[in-house]
């Protein structure tokens, strides 16, 4: 079963039949005694959780395809992935947000047990059966996929702004329930980010670029983790519900005629922050340097146009707070968020270094970070350095290098 042991498969199958299948039978009809389960492991993305596709096949030929997400069986003992917070956030999203919207995968089953995480699970419909697929390119995705994704995240942000405006009490309650799931002082992410983030300034120094600029940026990037923790703090009035991990891996696409539709998945890292958190992550993790440098204005205009249209369609009358200039100014102050993530994550995403999830430890992560600092050689170093210069030229570093 694609890397899942026979015992694990049997355990998953028994759990599914006992807990999930009755919910499916109740919702869709059928007979529990006359079904077979087909279990597969996704092979085209990066997962920390234990994830499986489970197809429920009835005797009459009907098939219901589901996606099962559970905490991993084994985790490194000296690393904290904050799985309780991650699962808590995603469950919050499906219970209180997605349940009233049609643009997200339908949730079939939720089990939450903060005291016994192994009994926590989320089961949603498998949208691949609706012809949704991941973008074939794992990075540097084609421009039409960029635009489709940007339009979908604009609608997602508009949904948040509309709820914030029209039902602020409910919105505030949801925001207050969101748990920090990623940025904690003194943990392994801080080690990795701070080691790798100085790569562009190292390259620029070697090539005799503006010394004063390098000094200021190196000071910031040596403590990029602290900078990131500042960037994620909500800044009103543009703070909104963010996806939190808006990358190619969490967007599914399908072609309908001339339209490439998108659907977002994986809401474990939702947060209340600047919309630039999502935009910059998508650009610097999933898009090419060429598209970022040459096509940013077009991409941002499409984002803004889609956002405004969605706000107006949702009954928003006062839209001055969401003007192009205000959103762009907000983006400029937060763009480093996605840039730094791209610098340390892209070497792994591009296969320049290897990440073995079965052997993770703080020591291994430190080794990985040291490798990522040089992986891809001068070609990748020049790419991230050029992007840093582009951030400077477009005013995204003015608040740092003044």
From TrEMBL:
SMART domains the UniProt entry points to: CHK
Coiled coil: none
PANTHER family to which the protein is assigned, alphabetical: JUVENILE HORMONE-INDUCIBLE PROTEIN 26, PROTEIN KINASE-LIKE DOMAIN-CONTAINING
Protein name according to UniProt: CHK kinase-like domain-containing protein
The organism's place on the tree of life at top rank: Eukaryota
A family per Pfam: EcKL
Domain CHK kinase-like, chain residue ranges per copy: 122-313
InterPro entries per the UniProt record, alphabetical: CHK_kinase-like, EcKL, Kinase-like_dom_sf
Transmembrane segments: none
Gene3D superfamilies: 3.90.1200.10
């Amino acid at each position: 079963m694609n890397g899942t042991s026979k015992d694990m498969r049997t355990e998953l199958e028994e759990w599914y039949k006992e807990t999930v299948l009755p919910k499916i039978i109740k919702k869709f009809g059928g007979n529990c005694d006359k079904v077979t389960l087909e279990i597969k492991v996704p092979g085209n993305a990066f997962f920390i959780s234990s994830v499986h596709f489970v197809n429920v096949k009835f005797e009459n030929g009907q098939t219901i395809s589901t996606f099962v997400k559970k905490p991993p069986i084994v985790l490194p003992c000296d690393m904290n992935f904050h799985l309780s917070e991650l699962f808590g956030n995603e469950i919050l999203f499906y219970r209180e947000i997605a349940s009233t919207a049609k643009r997200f995968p339908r949730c079939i089953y939720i089990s939450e047990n903060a005291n016994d995480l192994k009994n926590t699970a989320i089961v949603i419909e498998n949208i691949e059966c609706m012809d949704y697929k991941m973008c074939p390119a794992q990075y540097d995705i084609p421009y039409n996929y960029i635009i489709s994704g940007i339009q979908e995240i604009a609608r997602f942000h508009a949904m948040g702004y509309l709820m914030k405006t029209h039902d602020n009490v409910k919105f505030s309650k949801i925001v207050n329930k969101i748990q920090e799931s990623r940025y904690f002082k003194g943990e392994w992410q801080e080690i990795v980010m701070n080691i790798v983030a100085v790569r562009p300034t190292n390259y620029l120094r070697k090539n005799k670029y503006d010394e004063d600029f390098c000094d200021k940026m190196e000071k910031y990037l040596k403590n990029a983790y602290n900078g990131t923790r500042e960037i994620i703090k909500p800044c009103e009035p543009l703070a909104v519900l963010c996806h939190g991990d808006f990358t190619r891996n969490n967007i599914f696409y399908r072609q309908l005629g001339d339209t490439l539709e998108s659907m977002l998945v994986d809401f474990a890292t939702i947060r209340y922050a600047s919309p630039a958190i999502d935009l910059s992550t998508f650009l610097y993790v999933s898009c090419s340097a060429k598209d970022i440098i040459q096509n940013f204005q077009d991409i941002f205009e499409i984002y803004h146009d889609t956002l405004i249209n969605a706000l107006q369609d949702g009954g928003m009358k006062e839209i001055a707070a969401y003007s192009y200039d205000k959103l762009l100014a907000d983006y400029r102050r937060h763009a480093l968020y996605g840039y730094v993530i791209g610098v340390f994550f892209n070497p792994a995403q591009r296969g320049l270094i290897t990440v073995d999830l079965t052997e993770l430890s703080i020591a291994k992560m430190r080794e990985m970070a040291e490798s990522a600092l040089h992986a891809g050689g001068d070609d990748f170093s020049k790419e991230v350095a050029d992007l840093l210069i582009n951030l400077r030229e477009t005013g995204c570093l003015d608040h740092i290098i003044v």
